[in-house]
Amino acid sequence: MSSRLAVDIGGTFTDVVLETGATSHSIKVLTTPDAPERAVLEGVRSILAEAKCRPQDVTLVVHGTTLATNALIERKGARTALITTEGFRDSVEMAWEHRFEQYDIYMERPQPLVPRDLRFGVPERVASDGAVLLALDEAAVRRVAAQLKAEGIEAVAVCFLHSFTNEAHERRTAAILAEELPGVAISLSCEVCPEIREYERTSTTIANAYVLPRMAGYLGQLEADLKKEGIAGPLLLMMSSGGITTVDTARRYPVRLVESGPAGGAILARTVAAENDARRAVAFDMGGTTAKLTLLDDLELQRSRQFEVARAYRFVQGSGLPVRIPVIELVEIGAGGGSIARLDALGRIQVGPDSAGSVPGPASYGRGGTEPTVTDADTALGRLDPRRFAGGAIPLHRDKAEAALQSLAGPLQTDAQGAAAGVAEIVDETMASAARVHAVENGKDTADRALIAFGGAAPLHAARLARKLGMKQVIVPVGAGVGSAFGFLRASIAYEVVRTRHMRLDMFDAKMLNELFAAMRAEAEAVVRPAAPGETLVESRQAFMRYRGQGHEIAVPLPNEPFATDAARELRRRFEVTYEQVFGRAIPKLEVEALTWTLSLATDRPLPSPAKTVARAAAPAPSGHREVLDPATGHREQAALYERNALKPGMIFDGPALIVEDGTTTVVPNDFTARINQVGQIVLEDRA
Q: Disordered: where is this region (predicted)?
């Protein structure tokens, strides 16, 4: 029988999932930061042996990785240069020309990935309508190429003014560079980000060039290693948009892999929400390094076309490097199992954003870590079984966890468990605060939503987080500890194409627009079809529109059909409906224009139907009891222990309890009831 593999590389753990029909196996191994593929291969070999599956029976491998993100954050990418229109090399430092922290006199801006001495301008100029005002100076390009060769440049980003309307100069520059600099990676803005707004387009193209050599080498090596293992199935990559794509596309546009892991988790959450008919939900993914939260409304994820990486101020918009790519909108917090706890100058507990990672790891790992972390707190509170953590691969040392927590306990005049309770409460409040801000920024709230918890640490903290956010229900899916990897296997093969073509609706040109969408469809299909031969493809279109004179646009859904000559009336109607939803009212008698058009093409992955109600059944007798300190009350309680694989649909019991499985542990506090639904998911309900 054929099998499918999913691999998710995180900051602390690499998760591997194998699905064969209705059967699944999962495993966690420590990430190897110096060579991420080493952990991947270790996990793949282990899971194939555990499942007694032959490598040749694996028909598909889907992979998500933080490698591109980490290269940008840690500034460990290629030695990169920028070639741009003469006079515009400083646009990446000028950015938006505003202060993201108005009153901070010590404000630090993010440093560009390309230093000023490696940014070069060449004479050329294209007008906003695509007309050539100044021909490309090819001799100047060759002179720059000679300088780049002398500097030992590994990658080049090419971004000329208005190349999104006329790409000829960028194409010709790429041809010259390929001739003069064989082997150097070249990224063109007309391919990576062919849309308006110079700073974002340049930043995205530079980011793509910066990570391209490392990612191309890594993906090529991993693909070859998997074939050596005997796995013949194709390797596909998870993108930040929630779709998966081919290795060839990922090699060309590795910037689209930024945030690929969290995107897989969001896809899983959407599936789980559908199975529970939870139309309003929050996806909560807490791993070893970070926590991520995503809002769902009417079973739809929030999406965006811009994302910031490597923020100088972790939670401040505008303090990072913008990348203009399709992305699932989420908030990310430095609050994972490995997040380090300390006391600030006022003696208050602070948690994160720095993490112990996989090396040396939390103190309880016994691998040399000495600073207290969230995992150490959970261990000291009695929530974790030291013999079952990560499927038993990493035995926990409670004595070392408590010893590390003493650095907090002394100044706080408490014991190790008291310090652990403080750490747990602070990290839960940090996540709750981030979720509230994220919801308010999007004009939403968190109350009365379902919280879908996955990732190794999320089920430990989900019930307390839900209560802080006014939620009454928590859902823990099957395989929650490796949730993002499971999400990879439920994602569509997809690709999005974007083009900027300015059009006023009073000057609507149906012929031009139909030709544009036909070309976009062909480009998207060329990426999607090789990975999905014979599958039904679903197309969706959007226009980014505004009232004339406004500085920014809103996304307006478009019909998936050719535009008639009188389609301007329908486009205006759709724009006004969307504008009213966002701002409360439309503005009469103002002209409307569209700047950017997008087309997404994806394989059809229908959502599952809601799970059926099952008859109530008695839970089995607990396998034991363990004393657990509840940070919310400060009380020590005897929590009943249940093995998750012993719990069947319909079973129900009250807390306090711990539901133990290889990838995680679900904490059921007092005042919560746990039940198992038809598809084996744990549903916690607040009785208070």
A: 353-372
Among positive and negative, which fits the CA dihedral 308, 314, 316, 321?
Answer: negative
Q: Which residues pair with 640 in a beta bridge?
A: 625, 657
Check whether 261 has a pLDDT greater than 90.
Answer: no
Decide if 53 contacts 20 (C-beta within 8 A). Answer: yes
What is the strand order of the sheet 592-603 is part of? 494-504, 592-603, 537-547, 554-558
Rounded Cα distance, 226 and 40, in Å: 10
Residue ranges of alpha helices (H) inside 309-415 are 374-380, 398-412
Q: Whole-model pTM? A: 0.87
Q: Which of 384, 269, 286 is nearest to 336 (CA)?
A: 286
DSSP sequence for 210-224: HHHHHHHHHHHHHHH
Q: Give the span between the Cα atoms of 352 and 364, in whole angstroms.
A: 17
DSSP string for residues in 528-588: HGGGSTT--EEEEEEEEEEETT-S--EEEEE-SSPPPTTTHHHHHHHHHHHHHHHHSS--T
Distances, alpha carbon 172 to alpha carbons 145, 167, 573, 600, in Å:
13, 9, 42, 28
- Per-residue pLDDT, averaged over 247-266, amounts to 89
Q: Which of 480, 465, 489, 474 is nearest to 632 (CA)?
A: 465
Give the pLDDT score at 111: 86
Q: How far is CA 664 from CA 103, 339, 450, in A?
A: 43, 17, 20
Nearest to 674 by CA among 661, 688, 685, 660: 685
Q: Tell me if 200 sits within 8 A of 193, measured CB to CB.
A: yes
HSE-CB of 290 using CA atoms within 13 angstroms:
18
Measured CA to CA, the distance from residue 664 to residue 661 in angstroms comes to 6
**Do 278 and 450 touch, CB atoms closer than 8 A?**
yes
More reliable by pLDDT, 306 or 249? 249
> DSSP readout, 270-298?
HHHHHHTT-SEEEEEEE-SS-EEEEEEET
Tell me which H or E stretch contains 117: none
